[in-house]
């Protein structure tokens, strides 16, 4: 039977160093892709995910009662990503207060309408998610791409479950507008 | 419950969150009564599908290596036995290309150098009169002109002619010339011996010359001898020294001789007729003058043809031989060991080596320039592609 992350971490604490390698193999793609979705840049994603695992290898993780290891690890990844995002000037200079009317140089809800191929559609989805306010973006990424429950998301984001519900709902509302041309009947 | 709350609940339901019975009932009721909410739910489901269009990424080899090294450094994992000089694919290809070009260039240069050296060696042998080893013969002549040259390295077969053919050959007019070069011990003794041989075989010395030098005196004799005695005379002359080269030539002038002979017969007939005409004295003086003029011309041509036939008969009756003989030049004996000379020699060799190295560097740079250009181009393209991909 496969050992849980928490058990592996306990074994690592007990001196079984290779337990951490098992953890790494379990999470390397997930963390890398989480960072990729948060940052939208492969090079930055690789750098940040490397830092996340270095934090894992060097930090003293203590299994806690209500916080799963995965939630803890994603919280670290999220914090690293936020640091990178904060360093980006556009996040300093641009405001997301009104969900900015301009999306990738065009009006929201507009764009290349017909004959979208899968790659182009994927790029639009990436841009739309990247354009969400940070908390909404984190919530929707954790919920959709990392299969976190609302409860786990609340732990990772350090907020209430009700707030997570609202964040995800708002994120979907924004995405519905931004990706309206993809969501039309027959486009998918 | 207003539409906003229903949409919030619908969002959670689409995400697979567990709702209370009360909330589920409210959603079912609202969906039943509102087409707008049903459309909203369908759009949420399509959004879920749309979000899956953003694909995952795979980790790069560089990142994996980096993580492996980090874990190895922390003692979490054993380090892979990998090459210290592991390079990206493009760099590896560029390195292989460079090695290929360098090795190819070196091989090509060596091949060209060997060809040039071979030609220089042949030329040096030719200039110094040294013999080349071609089969079993000791006579130097370009291998492609040699009658002894045979690609299988065997001696050419001697074909014995039949009697009738031999007679026919004897009747033919052939001008034979032989050039012989021999190395002798004493040039004056050689001159005397060759002259005696010519006399012995009823030959005629046409020209005889000797040149005395402090180092390597020489001389030459041109003589004619009957073709039947030619081989014997040559054999004897060759025994006076070491043969360095021998060239035999035979020009068949039978055709010319027969042709001239036939034309001579015709001319003689014309001359006889003209003589008869002149004796009969035609009526007009002008006609007589014309006949005599023509007779004079024909007679002149007959004399020229007779002279030509005589010449051909004479030259084909005798073979002409040119014998060049010379004493071996004495090579100055090397002086005793000299430190200064030795140092000079070493210095010269070092200088030549430096020049050769410099030349080689220039050649290598020349070879590499296009490779470097293409490598940079590929590398630039790869870099741009990598950046664009990000």
Explain the overall architecture:
The complex is a heterodimer of chains A (188) and B (390). Chain A is an all-alpha fold and 188 residues long. Chain A is 68% helix and 2% strand. Chain A has 10 helices and 2 strands. In chain A, a hairpin with a 2-residue loop joins β1 and β2 (106-107). In chain A, α1 (5-13) crosses α2, α2 packs antiparallel against α3 and α7 packs across α9. Chain A is elongated, with a radius of gyration of 18 Å. Chain A starts with a helix and ends in a 5-residue tail after the last helix. The model of chain A is unreliable at 95-113 (pLDDT under 50). With 390 residues, chain B is of the alpha+beta class. In chain B, 62% of the residues lie in helices and 12% in strands. Chain B is built from 11 helices and 5 strands, in the order ααααααβαββαβααβα. Chain B has helices spanning 3-14, 21-33, 35-51, 61-73, 89-128, 163-171, 187-200, 227-238, 254-280, 285-317, 339-389; strands spanning 174-184, 204-211, 218-225, 242-252, 319-327. Chain B has a 5-stranded mixed beta sheet with strand order 2-3-5-1-4.
Keywords:
heterodimer; A: 188 residues; two-stranded antiparallel sheet; elongated; B: 390 residues; alpha+beta; 11 helices
Secondary structure: number of strands of chain A: 2
Biggest sheet details of chain B: 5 strands, mixed
Please give the radius of gyration of chain A in angstroms.
18 Å
Taken in chain order, the helices and strands of chain B follow as: HHHHHHEHEEHEHHEH
Shape of chain A from CA axes?
A: elongated
Largest sheet of chain A: 2 strands, antiparallel
pLDDT average of chain B, as an integer?
80
Strand content of chain B: 5-15%
Low-confidence residue ranges of chain A? 95-113
Strand order of the largest sheet of chain B: 2-3-5-1-4
Sheet-strand content of chain A, in percent, reads under 5%
Fraction of helical residues of chain B: 55-70%
CA-to-CA gap between the ends of chain B? 46 Å
SS field, number of helical segments of chain A? 10
Question: SSE order of chain A in H/E notation?
Answer: HHHHHEEHHHHH
**What percent of the residues of chain A sit in helical stretches (DSSP H or I)?**
55-70%
Structural class of chain A: mainly alpha
